[in-house]
Specification:
Elements: E1 9-18, E2 21-25, E3 30-34, E4 47-54, E5 60-63, E6 75-83, E7 87-91, E8 98-101, E9 118-125, E10 131-135, H1 138-144, E11 156-165, E12 168-173, E13 178-182, E14 195-203, E15 209-212, H2 217-234, E16 238-239, H3 247-254, H4 258-270, E17 274-277, E18 280-283
Parallel strand pairs: 3-5, 13-15
Antiparallel strand pairs: 1-2, 1-4, 2-3, 4-5, 6-7, 6-9, 7-8, 9-10, 11-12, 11-14, 12-13, 14-15, 16-18, 17-18
Helix pairs in contact: 2-4
Length: 287
């Protein structure tokens, strides 16, 4: 049984040179260091620290490239390929991308990471010794997390989603606060590994935070008012809706509640941009 294990770093000496690289040994076993995995000047009289992985043929190989993660260490790694039948591949800093199995990803494909997203990962091997990405556990996240100060309340933050639950999503912010986004504090559920931006709406005793991805009330009002204004622009400055319109009709046309619709109308009227008459809303002509 081999003592070498993929996903680990070892220090070996050169056993022999071949046309395509060098075989390195610990005195009992050897492993190939391909020429394409050599970094910098190579002295065959010295020992070399290398990372072990499986090459594209599934053979154990060595590289002098330094990976971002190995077994027992965690970091954010970028998703570079998505394979529906397999999972997602992440770039750990070596020539071969590593698979995070679909068995470790959300059941709903739309919540899988996309190319460019980042996952907090380590490495693991299966019973056959094959190397896979391992998603960060809650304990692993807490090891790097810091407590949010009380002064962080209502601050804007950004971070990446590392865990999905039915009731909401967990993120680690750029400041390394653990944040929870309740399902009521988002428009749609974010993907695993997605970068999101929100604001802190509560700080818990343990230093973790609650985050809302919804805009502040004035920001939402501005967005709704702009939606109505843009709609009226597309209709030459008039629309067959006003503050007494049916709530269902408003929801179907604008995807907003009647209360939000009336607030947006009120904002536009206060700014002197519109007026209402006989069930219609019109642009005000500039004097």
């Amino acid at each position: 049984m081999t003592s070498f294990e993929a996903g680990t770093t070892v220090t070996l000496k050169v056993d022999r040179e071949v046309d395509f690289g060098y075989f390195l040994t610990d005195g009992e076993e050897d492993v190939l260091l391909h020429n394409s995995d050599i970094v910098g000047e190579f002295n065959d009289e010295e020992e070399h620290t290398v990372f072990l992985y499986q090459d594209h043929q599934g053979r154990l190989a060595a590289t002098m490239m330094t990976p971002k993660i190995e077994q027992g260490t965690y970091d954010w790694v970028e998703v570079v390929e998505v394979k529906h039948k397999l999972g997602v591949f992440v770039n750990i800093g070596i020539r071969k991308d590593i698979l995070v199995s679909k068995d470790d990803l959300p059941e709903i494909f739309d919540l899988w990471p996309e190319v460019g997203d980042h996952l907090y990962c380590s490495l693991k091997t299966d019973k056959h010794g094959r190397l896979f990405g391992k998603l960060g556990t809650e304990d692993a996240i807490r090891e790097v997390a810091v407590k949010a100060p009380r002064t962080a309340f209502n601050k804007n933050v950004s971070g990446r989603v590392y865990r999905l639950l039915l009731v909401g999503s967990f993120i680690l912010t750029d400041e390394k606060y653990i944040g929870f986004i309740h399902e009521t504090q988002r428009v749609r559920e974010p993907r695993l590994g997605q970068k999101v931006e929100g604001r802190i709406i509560d700080i818990k005793e343990d230093g973790s935070v609650n985050i809302s991805l919804l805009g502040r009330s004035h920001e939402i009002l501005d967005e709704d008012a702009m939606k109505l204004y843009s709609y009226m622009e597309s209709r030459d400055g008039a629309m067959p809706f006003w503050d007494k319109s049916d709530p269902d009709d408003i929801q179907i046309r604008f995807q907003m509640s009647k209360a939000a619709f009336k607030r947006a109308l009120g904002r536009l009227m206060k700014d002197g941009k519109i007026y209402q008459e006989d069930g219609w809303t019109y642009f005000k002509k500039e004097e």
